[in-house]
Give the backbone structure.
Amino acid sequence: MAGTREAVADKDKMMRDAATTTGAVHGGVVDEALARRMRRRGEESRFWWVVPTIYIIFLMLPIYWLINMSFKSNQEILGAFSLWPQNPTLRNYAVIFTDPSWYKGYINSIIYVVMNTVISISVALPAAYAFSRYRFLGDKHLFFWLLTNRMAPPAVFALPFFQLYSAFGLIDTHIAVALAHCLFNVPLAVWILEGFMSGVPKEIDETAYIDGYSFPRFFVKIFVPLIASGIGVAAFFCFMFSWVELLIARTLTTTDAKPIAAIMTRTVSASGMDWGVLAAAGVLTIIPGALVIWFVRNYIAKGFALGRV
Amino acid sequence: MEKTWNNKAWFMVLPVLVLVAFSAVIPLMTVVNYSVQDTFGGNQFFWAGAEWFEEMLHSDRFWAAMGRNLIFSAIILAIQIPLGIFIALNMPRKGWGVPVCLVLMALPLLIPWNVVGTIWQVFGRIDIGLLGYTLHALGFDYNYVNDPFDAWVTVIIMDVWHWTSLVVLLCYAGLVSIPDAFYQAAKIDGASRWAVFRYIQLPKMQRVLLIAVLLRFMDSFMIYTEPFVVTGGGPGNSTTFLSIDLVKMAVGQFDLGPAAAMSIIYFLIVLLLSWVFYTVMTNYDVEK
């Protein structure tokens, strides 16, 4: 990479040299200095990749180990220590994909995560618009109160949630988990969307009204497309936090809506741990995250800053 | 942005209010209800007043868990914030390296928390885990199941692995928002690397760092799943943090009164910290 950069700088310089020699009117001295500076910068950052690489290796090692284990049989995992599978087997994945009680866990997780994302975004959109455009009675207190819910320890809510949803007969349904996860996802979505919406100049709203747009039509036709990336980021974060949460999801479900992460705990059986299947299940939980992250890669950082960079 | 005063905006906030009231206010009232009552099973409750709160505030177990949690959060911040800044400073700004770094670094953040626990539980085992096996082969007496110190080290490394990327991404977002002209000006002035960091990059990162510090503090202060999976709060009580203790009390022993009182004290602390966060941040916005 460093080599390529230098090559680019060199090529730049050559092109400039060529331009000057062919008589193009450019500040030759300035260009010379610029090219030199570019080269020097290239030299300075020749080792730019060292730190990120070491860090990424540190991040990938445990994940690699899990993938490695997922392709081994239990005898091999417990028997011999090896850095890669000696006799690669797909048996662990086969167990998961053929047993409904396993793969239903994935379906359950995805159902409540998607439900939660849809609910969170649809209620957060108008609220975020209100916060970004208007001042109203108690707006600051309300915004702060929403924030406190993001900061509420899920452990505090586990038991009361169980009782609340029992009272409504919602235990072990997907909607119960989806609603419970709104506790932290709605505030988050409001925050992120508000950050993105504040970046859209108010003149756009006013112009639309002058052009005769009604509010709902303006909101759907003009405003939503403008903050499409913000909606994407907010949806990503709702997906993420609902996907990784377990304490509440596990408390509210017993069988029919049990998330995959909770099903994983049953690999402990009388004959000991089924390490291979546990590893395969773990690998499969990483994949959806890796997929969605690719779509929002350019906005992740802004999203984590709650749309406020 | 200049905002207009319009109380009709309340109607737009209404859906959020209803939803959050259902998922936050009602459960919280249940907790308050339990915290002032006593029960001997069934549905019979007796008024207990502030008894449980007094018991909690004089309970060694509570303060021990609180102490452990504060130490844990302090260590986490002391490692993750400087490390995150350092890595963000060394990340590429353009080219193919950017998306690769962003995606790979963000990956641990998207792994379900108990899978994070499982990964490290396996990774640290001395018989089948790469880390435990290697350390053992190198002659270290490492065993996170028996040794409290090793358990702490494992939990901390796990959290660093899990969450440092958040700090990196936030700092990176701050860094890329600095216009090139700033660096050019620094170059002309002959500023050293340190001066560039101290007077250009750090001030620009101030805001995201604030978010990073507070998010990391909050989340490490309510950490539950990961250490629970790895150590189960042990050996002994050595890695029993506040949330783990709370769940043990409420679900394991079904001590509703004390657990509810503890929840409220816990929540009030978090509330206080959120308030500080919010005030500092809104003041910062106003100054800007």
In short: Strands of chain B lie at 4-5, 37-39, 45-47. Chain B has one domain: 61-255+270-287. The first strand of chain B starts at residue 4 and ends at 5. The CA atoms of residues 132 and 179 of chain B lie 45 Å apart.
